Amino acid sequence: MNKKICVYSAPYPGLESYCDMIDFTAGLGLGALEGFCHFELSAPDIEAAKRIREYADKKNVTCPCFSVFADIYHDDPAEKTEWLCRFADVAKILGSPYLHHTVIGDCFDHPGVLAKKEELFELGIKLVRDVTDYAASIGIGTVYEDQGFVFNGVEGFGRFLGEVDRPVGVVADTGNVSQTGDTIADFVTAFGSRVKHAHVKDWAFFPSDPGGYLPTLDGRFACDVELGKGEIDVAGAVALLKSFGYDGYYALEFSGKTPSDPAYRASLEKLSGILG
């Protein structure tokens, strides 16, 4: 298995703790796990982070990025800022160089979000500045991905990077940018020099939603599928990232499947082959 693959710490059925996730990662022969705000770290818990770091070190598993689901669409932005700053503390304890977080929880509800786009953009910029400033003060970088309908697409994400006025990094997500009609090649071409981390997924698109699929601006619906079975040019995106000198981790995002699912293992093997 390619050593640049990072396991995305999704709450897969059958895995009930960070120790389980670390064991799963090590069992695949991989040494990197992207943390997420669940299990013992559903809230920023310093003591839990210390225990997780100790166990990860024993298993030779590192945390190249720690991700947090945050939502200023429903939650108080000031309280969310403080909460995210505490997760920056957690990221530092885990040895992660980067904190990654969403800004708008309902990022896939485009009718609701787009009606408040300017207000949410302004609130999001302030949140990101404040969290980034604190994270920088403790030696942690912040990174942001192409996601949803506000901070996404070449135009929307370019505006975000321009207005945030901080040296934030970029997470290149191979699927998410498709929601806006742009491709991952468009996104990497525009922002490749700032990419610090990558999320890899493949999506298939459908004309209707049978339940749980993600809407796109052109009226289609997307869902995760086994790598190579969808419409995302993952291999092309990897080649383009490498042309920009990217040498970081590629976190496989394959939601809604158990770790024992053959499609999950097949996706890992496919990604390993793409990376070479």
Describe this protein's structure.
This protein has 276 residues and is an alpha/beta fold. It is 41% helix and 17% strand. The chain is built from 9 helices and 11 strands. The protein has helices spanning 18-27, 46-58, 77-94, 110-115, 117-137, 153-164, 184-191, 234-243, 262-275, and strands spanning 5-8, 33-36, 66-68, 98-101, 141-145, 169-173, 195-200, 202-206, 214-215, 221-225, 250-252. An 8-stranded parallel barrel has the order 1-2-3-4-5-6-7-11, surrounded by 5 helices. Strands 8-10-9 form a 3-stranded antiparallel beta sheet, with no helix packed on it. Helix 2 links the parallel strand 2 and strand 3 (66-68). The model has no long low-confidence stretch (mean pLDDT 93).
Gyration radius, in Å: 18 Å
Number of helices: 9
Distance between the termini: 10 Å
Estimate the mean pLDDT confidence: 93
Please trace the helix and strand order, writing H or E for each element. Answer: EHEHEHEHHEHEHEEEEHEH
Unreliable sequence segments: none
- Helix/strand class: alpha/beta
Largest sheet: 8 strands, parallel, barrel
Helix content, binned percent: 40-55%
Strand order of the largest sheet: 1-2-3-4-5-6-7-11
**Can you tell me the overall shape?**
globular
